[in-house]
Amino acid sequence: MATGRNHRPATRSRGIPEATVARLPLYLRALTALSERSVPTVSSEELATAAGVNSAKLRKDFSYLGSYGTRGVGYDVEYLVYQISRELGLTQDWPVVIVGIGNLGAALANYGGFASRGFRVAALIDADPAMTGRQVAGMGVSHVDDLEQIIQANGVSIGVITTPGGAAQQVCDRLVAAGITSILNFAPTVLSVPEGVDVRKVDLSIELQILAFHEQRKAADELAAGRNGTPRVPAAVERRAGRAEDGPEGDIPAVMPA
Amino acid sequence: MATGRNHRPATRSRGIPEATVARLPLYLRALTALSERSVPTVSSEELATAAGVNSAKLRKDFSYLGSYGTRGVGYDVEYLVYQISRELGLTQDWPVVIVGIGNLGAALANYGGFASRGFRVAALIDADPAMTGRQVAGMGVSHVDDLEQIIQANGVSIGVITTPGGAAQQVCDRLVAAGITSILNFAPTVLSVPEGVDVRKVDLSIELQILAFHEQRKAADELAAGRNGTPRVPAAVERRAGRAEDGPEGDIPAVMPA
DNA sequence: CCATCTTTGTGCACGCGTTCACAAAGGCAT
DNA sequence: ATGCCTTTGTGAACGCGTGCACAAAGATGG
């Protein structure tokens, strides 16, 4: 029916939409919290609130996994934790390597969230010989020369890049050549990888810039509105308006493309 | 026509789609690199490649900002850098506070990417009295008791939360009450904020879980395919298949919902 | 055993984002 | 000046994701 002529089943993984996959960890976290409080069952409404999403969306998401709920009752917390964990592949062990042990790399190595869910830091790798052998988060730092050997010896398939931007692509290439097929990139660089390799990107600078855009828009809105609607969060707006020393020159021309 | 009854124009900011806004920083970064190499103009095709996107998408994105290109030539690099910077609000100064100076908070404080684009760390804030006054990234750590005073004295409207999950909502509430209207949240918590406050979330654990999902699927695909297509990235697959000690029990039942 | 009430699972419609494909626009050489 | 060649800007179609609204399913009480 809806399947029609399916050119690229690669995007849709096993029929689970990407957007749903991205929310499963959120549900899992909420469910884990409920599990720790020994809550036996939960309704889609409650769980959706806890996860910060719409309940219809949550139900539709779960429907892709199967019919794991009981009508009139809700979902069994423990069972759902198991199902989602299995779907996400968290029932197995995922060794990861962190490449680039600067401030950020060290912080991630120390981060507890790693081990909590099947992920295990197999090695810390840095290019600086001065770092080699040093202890970070109770683990010795390896030299990047041993990258291939470490990856293959530990069966690592997930790599985390926390190098400076300039080194990221080079490190990425070596990781991929060594067999890594999933990369979490913290460097401010667009990585190019062969098909079949997944890259996810975490970029502080980009996130801040997106926030700045909306912040600017909010300020402009309030300025333009003047005494219009209820002034939300008035303190911040007042201050921002007062601080703008470049005057109302920057953004007034509403370049509405006709 | 398609607009119909438009309840919430809040989502679309000044006509620029959210997806486009999220890509502007990417373009800006690529353009800045070109600018440093003194490249005068760039075509949509080149720039798109550098930014890792489709050229048609890039042109459509730019079309929301106005007609800044010259047909037959391309875009003027310097001019475009200026226009995007202005659109993103980067021509003004954005003081930010970082709350929670643990490993991650300290790493972010040291991160150079902050200052590079109009963002300035105005204060580091922590709840631990033992941290107060300590120097991190050449800056004294303030106590959380002074949070409101710091925010108002510096006109801060962007806050970064790097506390443990348990403290995040509480810190968030205080930030919002003090006038913060944009929050970048690194804590593994769903923050609830009043309308008009933007929250963006960076979650290492979620990113890893998403990668694990795809990784698992890739492994399953290769196992199922057997000797089918060209075995991409064969080393990793072989190893993964060999390492799976739980046998083919976990994921074979294709629960294809009829 | 039946009625009622709760909650799931999903068909459907809508809107956003992406991509294609092409006409309009402008530079450049002759 | 004119024609060609490159590249932009965008109309239109398509597909994905979201949310509504409701019927089906099952629990619960009498």
In spatial order, strands of the major sheet of chain A run 6-7-5-4-8-9-10
β-strand number of chain A: 10
Helix content of chain A: 40-55%
Report the biggest beta sheet of chain A as strand number plus sense, adding barrel if it closes.
Answer: 7 strands, mixed
Annotated CATH topology of the largest domain in chain A? Rossmann fold
Largest interchain contact: A-B, 98 and 96 residues
Order of helices and strands of chain A: HEHHEEHEHEEEHEHEEHH
Unreliable parts of chain A: 1-12, 231-258
Question: What's the CATH H-level homologous superfamily of the largest domain in chain A?
Answer: NAD(P)-binding Rossmann-like Domain
The global form of chain A is globular
Please tell me the CATH architecture of the largest domain in chain A by its name.
3-Layer(aba) Sandwich
Number of domains of chain A: 3
Pfam family, one (chains A, B): Put_DNA-bind_N
Protein name (chains A, B): Redox-sensing transcriptional repressor Rex
Keywords (chains A, B): Cytoplasm, DNA-binding, NAD, Repressor, Transcription, Transcription regulation
Region (Disordered) (chains A, B): 222-258
Would you mind describing this structure in some detail?
The structure is a homodimer of 258-residue chains. Chain A has 9 helices and 10 strands. In chain A, α1 crosses α4 (77-88) and α2 packs across α3 (55-65). In chain A, a hairpin with a 2-residue loop joins β6 and β7. The first copy, chain A, has 258 residues and is an alpha/beta fold. In chain A, the strands form 2 sheets. A 7-stranded mixed β-sheet of chain A has the order 6-7-5-4-8-9-10. The first copy, chain A, has helices at 18-36, 44-51, 55-65, 77-88, 103-110, 147-154, 165-177, 204-225, 234-243, and strands at 41-42, 69-70, 74-76, 94-99, 119-126, 135-136, 139-143, 158-161, 182-185, 198-201. The longest helix of chain A is centred in the last third of the chain and has 22 residues, at 204-225. Mean pLDDT of chain A is 85; it is low at 1-12 and 231-258. Chain A folds into 3 domains: 4-88, Winged helix-like DNA-binding domain superfamily/Winged helix DNA-binding domain (Arc Repressor Mutant, subunit A); 94-202, NAD(P)-binding Rossmann-like Domain (Rossmann fold); 206-245, no CATH class. Helices cover 43% and strands 16% of the residues of chain A. Chains A and B meet through α1, α3, α4, α5 and β9 of A and α1, α3, α4, α5 and β9 of B. Chain B binds a DNA duplex (30 and 30 nucleotides) through residues 2, 4, 11-12, 17-20, 43-45, 54, 56-57, 59-60, 62-63, 67, 69-75.
